[in-house]
Amino acid sequence: MSHNSFGHLFRVTTWGESHGAAIGCVVDGCPPRIALTEADIQPYLDLRRPGASRFVTQRQEPDQVRILSGTFEGLTTGTPISLLIENQDQRSKDYGEIKDRFRPGHADLTYELKYGIRDYRGGGRSSARETAMRVAAGAVARKVLDGVTIRGALVQMGDDRIDRAAWDWAATAENEFWCPDRAAAARWEQRLLEARKSGSSLGAVIEVVAEGVPPGLGAPIYGKLDADIAAALMGINAVKGVEIGEGFAAAALTGEANADEMRMGPDGRVIFGDNHAGGVLGGISTGQPIVARFAVKPTSSILTPRRSVDRFGQEVEVLTRGRHDPCVGIRAVPVGEAMLALVLADHLLRHRAQNPDAPSEARLPRN
Amino acid sequence: MSHNSFGHLFRVTTWGESHGAAIGCVVDGCPPRIALTEADIQPYLDLRRPGASRFVTQRQEPDQVRILSGTFEGLTTGTPISLLIENQDQRSKDYGEIKDRFRPGHADLTYELKYGIRDYRGGGRSSARETAMRVAAGAVARKVLDGVTIRGALVQMGDDRIDRAAWDWAATAENEFWCPDRAAAARWEQRLLEARKSGSSLGAVIEVVAEGVPPGLGAPIYGKLDADIAAALMGINAVKGVEIGEGFAAAALTGEANADEMRMGPDGRVIFGDNHAGGVLGGISTGQPIVARFAVKPTSSILTPRRSVDRFGQEVEVLTRGRHDPCVGIRAVPVGEAMLALVLADHLLRHRAQNPDAPSEARLPRN
Amino acid sequence: MSHNSFGHLFRVTTWGESHGAAIGCVVDGCPPRIALTEADIQPYLDLRRPGASRFVTQRQEPDQVRILSGTFEGLTTGTPISLLIENQDQRSKDYGEIKDRFRPGHADLTYELKYGIRDYRGGGRSSARETAMRVAAGAVARKVLDGVTIRGALVQMGDDRIDRAAWDWAATAENEFWCPDRAAAARWEQRLLEARKSGSSLGAVIEVVAEGVPPGLGAPIYGKLDADIAAALMGINAVKGVEIGEGFAAAALTGEANADEMRMGPDGRVIFGDNHAGGVLGGISTGQPIVARFAVKPTSSILTPRRSVDRFGQEVEVLTRGRHDPCVGIRAVPVGEAMLALVLADHLLRHRAQNPDAPSEARLPRN
Amino acid sequence: MSHNSFGHLFRVTTWGESHGAAIGCVVDGCPPRIALTEADIQPYLDLRRPGASRFVTQRQEPDQVRILSGTFEGLTTGTPISLLIENQDQRSKDYGEIKDRFRPGHADLTYELKYGIRDYRGGGRSSARETAMRVAAGAVARKVLDGVTIRGALVQMGDDRIDRAAWDWAATAENEFWCPDRAAAARWEQRLLEARKSGSSLGAVIEVVAEGVPPGLGAPIYGKLDADIAAALMGINAVKGVEIGEGFAAAALTGEANADEMRMGPDGRVIFGDNHAGGVLGGISTGQPIVARFAVKPTSSILTPRRSVDRFGQEVEVLTRGRHDPCVGIRAVPVGEAMLALVLADHLLRHRAQNPDAPSEARLPRN
């Protein structure tokens, strides 16, 4: 049991603080003989990188990842893969004023109460900076998930949702918000500029989708695929809610509207009439796309002064200067994709261990 | 790694199928010298029991629990506690017609694709019957959580939400729905009778609350309290969404509205202005009430015929007779409470292992 | 992490005390569609059973095992297998005199210091009775290990070792000691009668051998096959030493004498000149027989009075009446076999998860 | 489950190959507010360091450790501690001739069969170089084990054992073998020079002792302290046997000779007449010194040519040049100490989680 590891068979352990010398992770359990170099990982880090657009923190971090172990001549060897990124642009002096003060909505108070000590610089271990290593590890997981496509999109900013009829995956690469609805992206740009100007911040909802997932991933009771996805996404900084498929809206449907009917495709494949289930039934993947959503609260680091307390039990006012994301949900998109990749890679190995002969497609009759 | 175990230090392993000889669980890691007899567990089972009201399955199960190990002269000994309930009212013949057919919205297909075999009687391992053992184990967890009160309520049935202003915990014991709003309970009774009459079913949203939780439970990154709660609740049968505190609604708030301000109480306690966070910041408990909600889809076992497929790859029509809950969310209330208790008991032990001197209340300055 | 579970993917959790209502275990992770009934398990329990010969405890336990879950129509389903044995012949009054006294060489004192409570009747949880469930679970593991033969033999009783040149596996079934050397068996019978008559007891060394194990089981660093075998065997009651292959004698060999030379067999198989390694190199199986030995201390429950202390801090004399094994090593033979089976089944699944294409035989060139 | 992690609550994950860019580890679960800098770790690494004496490999590695995370202003913060050592003196060309050949007694063949790929340079992941990180992590564990002293000694080289009557801990610092018997050390120097001259190598037996360990560490069945020590020591490179206390010699004792009698000391402490048990009864520490021994086989890397096979299935002759330890057991002493420290730190936290009120000394009556 480790508080800083994720996964069981495909297992990632991250380490590092926002303003330490470096951040890194160890990926253990990766199968051998998979082609892997830094070039497989770097593009995903570049997408998450701070300083990359007007709408994210202006901290400048090149986030160049190095593979320190676990590969040989460009192939994985089955031994642990150590990844490392050096921290470069730590402006720790920005944080002097929160040394003894607890920012509302942050982990400052809870770290103090739990550990009696904290590296307050940039949030230390609780900083979203740690998610860079999730993205890096997620890139390795994608290599394990041959044939699986994992994508994410921002589907709500503040209270403004996209029009799902306008969904175009191509649009997500055209704007700075991973927004699949071009009209919504234009509205959001305006909103975000206003929020930043007023020293405020906005929340968001992200949807992540995995296509090409074989059936059978997951397990009946406490190794459920959806339960592990829920933990993975809820564990991202600032996330307060997670849904699979129809999610909370399922509560308002009738049983006959919600249960996805099945029929047979021409090639023996099971075809579902709809995907209210989000690709998971009884905790096990159906072969349909896995669909999950998560809600990210508005950044708590804002320029508006807030009432709070300090280490000595005094009431104080806190205002967070630093360089922050006005909508931290934006950079959570690649992180959500990465967490989904980590869950799926882990479950692929778990499934294979117990069921080596299980089919990779939802065909009937099963062999 | 076990697919049928929950928790790390306070660890529960359940076993059993809906129509097998018995169901049971092993609770490992319980501290010694805690008073524990069957009488501590049975009341919680009685609340979840099938056949107890008009609105739940009419299967008759006394659900009498036996403690087979781990206690001596009425006290826990620190060794594994084995709990067992014999199955009594298995009408397996009800299930002959789903032997080869996959019910929409059920785990029938995914079990077949994963394992190539399934105990189809009553859903086998995927039956909600397994949750009886979670409730039993949860009762043990409550004994470990001295000073903590865990309660649950149904806050939405179908698309009908309660009026939060009318919330009265006492009301939850007065109706058959754990509904804290008496007016809503009256409406729901009507709706549920109609749904059952028409061979349909309804979804629900449940809220669970833990009061008296010490600060410091949880851990920064992958041992987050909220992530573990999310997995625990999403792992309950038929659940499709989980929220902590403000949940999805947080996405629509501004940073200044969402971040809970703090001030000092007269006795050195930290007081929060609100509890948008749901008692968790940075994955660690704040000392405020833990508040979580989860959405349960409408029962997929309905009397309305549905299109589906069978084991041989033929298209068929399925209609689920059996004895089912028209709103399975009702019986999920004690299960949600139990899962929250299990997460908290586990985290209490985990916290204590690393931080034996941490304070049990949110007071400042910390010692 | 559970203190009462063994294995990771093929995972066994045992429960129960010597004089409780029953003992049992849950086997989780067993692959589906393996033929399994009580008849596959019972023969191994019969070999370990108390009361079966003059030289073991005279407690009469039929040890009839029941499968309560995890199989359907004679096949495993991939869900947890619950096994249960009822205790029958508990003569708890035998133990009244050790209620407050700590028997030398037993866990009485350490349980008291750790837990502050103990079920003293028959040793409670620390009784060798628990090993019945290891044997039962081991029988399930053997079913997973298709093509692997696991056998054990007593190779030393007291200071009397067998003549390895006289080794005949068939002999182990002919005497009451699992002794592969008929001449030694005759001597041991005499010694054991004398030991019992004088109220004393004898230690033993057991060798367990697994043939047909595929290469590749184990992992480089902390998932080493030999390390897990060491833990499995050292974890058997009363064991004080474990060896793999040449074991402690390897320390006295030169490098050239100890390192097993290799050559090619006619069919592309690697043939080893010798098996000093005991079938494991670098923590990974070579495809040769796995050979391990473990030393069992003489039974501490003896009729000779010994100096000790009691719960109140008083010095006392202790003499253990009860019904005990004069050489507990004898009944440890089937337990050692079972533990080896559990380790191998677990590692087979672990290996398969990461290396699904690895060959099942040591042939070169590897595909 | 990770193949490269050790421990549960005090958990170490190592990574790195002999000739990669660096080696490192992550220590997770360390309690907060413990003073820790590189200066606490470096001395232990210096003792294990290659090139430090005539009798170990002449590879020159300064082994300067860096702490990259998990501390703040000289104190641990409760977050993961990342340790890193850069590799400097990799003479990889030495290994060209074993690129395709399998050295007898090494992991070369088993890696090939398991993974189908290996970093052959210097043994890659299976090199003893990895043990530097165990020593580093062990130094952190020692800081957690306040009041516990852990020491090791070489008690046998080849077939030459020390005279236990001559044991003097001070002597271990005076010779290059950690030999507590000065006369034996003189003999061993001669033997080792001869072994090296003849291109041969010698095995060894190491004893590690922990004093000041509180009672209660460990757990009844599969979380036994001695089982975990056995796994920890057997998992060190080249180890073939492990003993606790009397070890294999216990098999030849009678029950009355082996079971350690107890009496009361003047201050309420339990005093044992002897320590045949090696400080562990029923898998739980007694409060006496923990005593364990392990046998290290003679280095398999020798200058004497040996018959073997290559990747292509051809028979070849292998002779290992490189720079090797003529008796790899020597450098295993600090590694054995470190592994014992890791086991004890982990069990201390595990014990505390379940039994926060357990006494730290073996006094009766227990509170």
What characteristics describe this protein?
homotetramer; 367 residues; alpha+beta; five-stranded antiparallel sheet
Characterize the structure shown.
Chains A, B, C, D: Its cofactor is FMNH2. With 367 residues, the first copy, chain A, is α+β, with helices and mostly antiparallel strands. The first copy, chain A, contains 7 helices and 18 strands. Chain A has helices at residues 38-48, 108-115, 131-144, 182-197, 225-234, 255-258, 332-354, and strands spanning 5-6, 11-16, 22-28, 65-67, 71-72, 75-76, 81-86, 149-157, 160-161, 204-211, 239-244, 262-264, 270-272, 280-281, 284-285, 290-296, 306-309, 315-318. In chain A, α1 (38-48) crosses α3 (131-144), α3 crosses α7 and α5 (225-234) runs antiparallel to α7. Chains in contact: A-B, A-C, A-D, B-C, B-D, C-D. β11 of chain A pairs antiparallel with β11 of chain B.
What coarse outline of chain A follows from CA principal-axis ratios?
Answer: globular
Q: Low-confidence spans of chain A: pLDDT under 50, at least 5 residues?
A: none
Of all protein chain pairs, which has the greatest interface, and how many residues does each chain bring to it?
A: A-B, 126 and 127 residues
User: How can the largest sheet of chain A be summarized?
Assistant: 5 strands, antiparallel
What is the beta-strand fraction of chain A?
Answer: 15-25%
- What string, H for helix and E for strand, traces the elements of chain A in order? EEEHEEEEHHEEHEHEHEEEEEEEH
Counting DSSP E segments of at least 2 residues, the number of strands of chain A comes to 18
Integer-rounded radius of gyration of chain A: 21 Å
On the 0 to 100 scale, the average pLDDT of chain A is 94
Quaternary form: homotetramer
The structural class of chain A is alpha+beta
Query: Ends of chain A: how far apart?
Result: 37 Å
